[in-house]
Specification:
alpha/beta, Rossmann fold, Arc Repressor Mutant, subunit A, 2 domains, 5-stranded parallel β-sheet, 4-stranded antiparallel β-sheet, 20% strand, elongated
Length: 229
C-alpha cells in the first residue's frame, strides 16, 4: 500500500486519531493544522490523497482547495462539521472528489479513501481516459483539460468536465444517476442523486442552451445519454 496521505485538520485530537488509524491501515500519514502550511506541503511533496477540513486557520479549506486545483488534480476528500448543502456543493464545485461530514465513522472514511485511490490509480494507468473526444463541433482534449465548441473555449469546473468526459466516453450508453455518481464522484453515493441533475443543468446551460444543440439527452426514470448525431 504505502500511499502518502496528508491530513489537514486543526483539531489536534481528530488529526492524531486519523494519523494513527491511517498508519495502522498501512498508509503513510502526515498531518498539518494550518491552511497555508497545507498549501505549501502539497506544492512541495508528492501526496496520493489529501483529507482537508473546511474550518482552518490562515486559509479555510475551500480556499486551499481552490488554489490546489490551479496546479494539481490530487484526490481530495473534504472534512466538515457543517452538514449544509452549500458547503458540499462549494467543495465539489471547486474540485473536491468527495466529502465526509463530522462526526464520521472511520470505516466509512477508509472505504471512501480506498475507492478514491483505486479510481485514481486506474486513471493514472490509462483506464477510462481518452485524450480526444468529439461530438459534432464539440471537442474535448482530456489530456490538456480543454473543451471547445466551434473553437470557442468552454469554461467548465472540474466536476463539470469529469461529468462531460464520462458521458462522451460512454456515447450511446444510457448511464444511470447512480452509476454517474459512483464513477464521477468516486464513491458509492448513499444520499440524494439530485446532484447529478444539478450538474447536467450546468452543462446544458453552457453547451445545449448556448449553441442551440441537444447533446445530453434525458432518459426518464433512468439517467442520461449522449447519442451519435
Amino acid at each position: 500500500m504505502n500511499e502518502n496521505i496528508l491530513i489537514v485538520e486543526d483539531e489536534i485530537k481528530i488529526a492524531r486519531f486519523l494519523e494513527l488509524e491511517l498508519n495502522y491501515e498501512g498508509y503513510k500519514a502526515e498531518k498539518v493544522h494550518d491552511g497555508r502550511e497545507a498549501l505549501m506541503k502539497i506544492k512541495n511533496n508528492n501526496y496520493d490523497l489529501v483529507l482537508l477540513d473546511i474550518m482552518l486557520p490562515s486559509l479555510n479549506g475551500i480556499e486551499v482547495l481552490r488554489r490546489v486545483r490551479q496546479f494539481s488534480d490530487i484526490p481530495i476528500i473534504m472534512l466538515t462539521a457543517k452538514d449544509e448543502t452549500m458547503d458540499k456543493v462549494a467543495g465539489l464545485d471547486m474540485g473536491a472528489n468527495d466529502y465526509v461530514t463530522k462526526p464520521f465513522e472511520i470505516e466509512e472514511l477508509l472505504a471512501r479513501i480506498r475507492a478514491l485511490l483505486k479510481r485514481n490509480t486506474q486513471i493514472s494507468n490509462g483506464k477510462g481516459k481518452t485524450e480526444n473526444l468529439n461530438y459534432g463541433a464539440l471537442h474535448m482534449d482530456a489530456d490538456m483539460h480543454i473543451v471547445t465548441y466551434n473553437r470557442d473555449i468552454i469554461e467548465l469546473t472540474k466536476k463539470e468536465f469529469d461529468l462531460l468526459h464520462y458521458l462522451l466516453l460512454n456515447k450511446n450508453r444510457v448511464l444511470t444517476r447512480e452509476k454517474i455518481l459512483e464513477t464521477v464522484w468516486g464513491y458509492d453515493y448513499l444520499g440524494d442523486t439530485n446532484v447529478v441533475d444539478v450538474y447536467i443543468r450546468y452543462l446544458r446551460s453552457k453547451l445545449d442552451d448556448r449553441y442551440n444543440v441537444k447533446i445530453i439527452q434525458t432518459i426518464r426514470g433512468v439517467g442520461y445519454v449522449v447519442r451519435d448525431e
